[in-house]
Every structure is written in structure tokens, then in C-alpha cells.
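Kindly inspect this today.
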Amino acid sequence: MNFSELPFDPQLAEGLQYMGFEKLTPIQEQAIPLVLANKDLIACAQTGTGKTAAFLLPVINKIAASKADYTDTLIIVPTRELAIQIDEAMQGFAYFTSVSSLAIFGGNDGIAFEQEKRALTQGANIIISTPGRLISHLNMGYVKMDKLKHLILDEADRMLDMGFSDDLNKIIKHLPKERQTLMFSATMPPKIRTLAKNILREPTEINISLSKPAAGVTQSAYVVYDKQKAPILHGILKDKQFSSVIVFCSRKESVKNLERELFRAKFSVSAIHSDLEQSERNEVLRNFKNKNLQILVATDILSRGIDIDSISLVVNYDVPGDAEDYIHRVGRTARAETTGQAITFINEMDQRKFKRIEDLCGYEINKIPVPEALGPAPAYTPEKKHSNPGKDKGGRSYKPRRFQKNK
């Protein structure tokens, strides 16, 4: 189906034509008619499938038709980066319409907080917010959402993983019971189905199966001791001139340490982590998108929901905890039928996790030998349960995982 076939407001259709939108993706083709028909919806679709347009476009269309001058739609997301991205998409889609929006998230200054307060009291049509920031406003008693028609939860599984369950329940208690609720999630564990049962009414379910890494991604891995990761990464970055590289670490402290190490080695590098002010995070992302920065080091905050094209290399410095997160990380490269590379470092403790990734992909990922100059490397024996004596065989101390602090 093409967008020209949808019964959209002429001004919205004009904006889509101007942006070059032609053919609908599978999630858009299934979801948009249901949203227009006011059906509650639970959709399982990963990032990169076009789900943002799947919920934004029909909602913009309904608001444009009703000429609402109040807050009609609340979109709740897990991270400030995703809130900003959805708001940017919203501004493009609604450019020729009168539909207004505002992204609300923590880490901003007092001026931004006052702007958010005005939007919540005077009625921006669409509010995109992280849970904690919205609760801060709700606790002050001035938020007006009594006429709300649409509640959208994006990346619902990630919000529950981040511990936002209680916050979501608090927010939903402030909303009208008569509303349309849309839930989008990359995975569908039991806790998501429980949440859906509590807040949705006779929902239609859509499942866009978790895709494998794109055919254009060349995947490989090194089986290493922790102390071998950094020199291998240095060699990779020096041997080939990758234009844009994202390096994923599992913990904030690892992100900071690796950024310092790469900076000392004269690489063009910056990091994204929760200790940065929002203005600093925005600047880093802007420089990376504009190709003024070659290497971005980050936690999984960037693995979902961040639309950055033309990534030539993704490095999993640490194996992600969930196999699905590997798909999301690797999905940052080889987008829109381009090509890219994905390299993963597997230490002894992470071998079983990587085997689950290979099982999900349905094939074994190529293992590259560690350079001889770096000494012997561990064998890849994922079926073996490796001991945790407090030091890996490379001699590096580490804490048992159950005592590690959250990133």
C-alpha cells in the first residue's frame, strides 16, 4: 500500500509527499487503519520498522480533523533521546498542519521546565514524555489531561526493564478511562501482556517478527580476555577508516573509561551516558549525525529508538545481556539497504550469552583469531560453565555480576 491511498488530511498528505514517503512498511500498513478506527492496539515491532510513523500519522490526522486546542495525545517513552527523536519526527510530519507537540524529559534547566508547564496547562496537542519528568509535573497539580483521547506507550518493554512500572501506573490514574491506548514493544514477555491486560480494552494484536540482522551486515567476533579488548579495538579503528562507529558497552563506567582511552589515542570520540547534561548529549549526537565526530561510545540507551543512518561499524565491546538487544545494536548499521560491519568481543563469562545470540540469528557468527602479539586467547566453549574466582584468566579483577551497580 502507498501513503497516497490513505484517507489522510490534505495538509498531512502534503507533508508526507514533501518528505518522500511512498510505500508503507508492514507495521504501518497493519497499524494505521486500526488507529484510525479507534481500536486499542498492542504491537510487537522492533526499531527500524517504521513504528513511529505507524502511531504518529493517524493521531496527527485525527487531531487535524478535530481541530483540537487541548492535549489530545500522550506518548510515554523510556529515554530522553527517544522523546527528542519522536518530537523531531512529529515536527516533520505535521509541518503543514496546525498540530503542536512538545518533548518533556529530565535534565533540562528551569526555563525548559516552565515551557513544559505552559504546554501541559495550555494544551500542546501531543506531549512526548519520559515517566519521571511527567510525574514531577503531575505532582504539582496543574497538568490538564481531562480531554485526552490517545495514550501511546513506546518501547514498553524497555520501560518495564528500567523499573518504570509504578510510574506508569501513577500516570495512567491521572488519565481519562475513555481513551484509545496503543502499546508498542520490541519484545512481548509476560510482564508486557499483564500491563496490556490492565490498561487496554479488547486490543488488536500485531506481531512483526523480530528480524535477523540485515543481509548487508558483516558480522564477526573475537573471543578474548578483557585486557585484549582495547588493543584489538585500536587496531580495527586504525586499519580501516570507518566514517561512523558506535561502540556499545554494558556499563556507564566502561563507557567513560573507553572514551578516555580512545581520546588519548587521538581518535575522534565522544560518549553518551546519563551523567551528561541534556545539552551535552544533544551536542554529541548532533556532531555524530553531522559526521563531525567519528566514534560514539554508549550504553544500550542508543540501541533502540535513535535514528542515525550511515553507521559503518558497530562494536559490541561487551556482549549485550539479551539476545534481542544484539539485534537492536547491530541494526544501527546497514540500514536502508546499505552495508556495514558488526564486531563483538566475547570474554569467557559472556560466551553463553553470545551462544544465545547465535541461536536467535540461526547461524554461527564468524570468530576472528586474536592477533598473536596479544598472547593466547580463551577457547570458545559456550557449553561450559566458566568459574568466577574474582579474576579473569587475563588477570583483570572484576565484581561478580550480581554485585555490579546498575548503569
Remarks:
- The radius of gyration is 22 Å.
- The chain is about 40% helix and 15% strand.
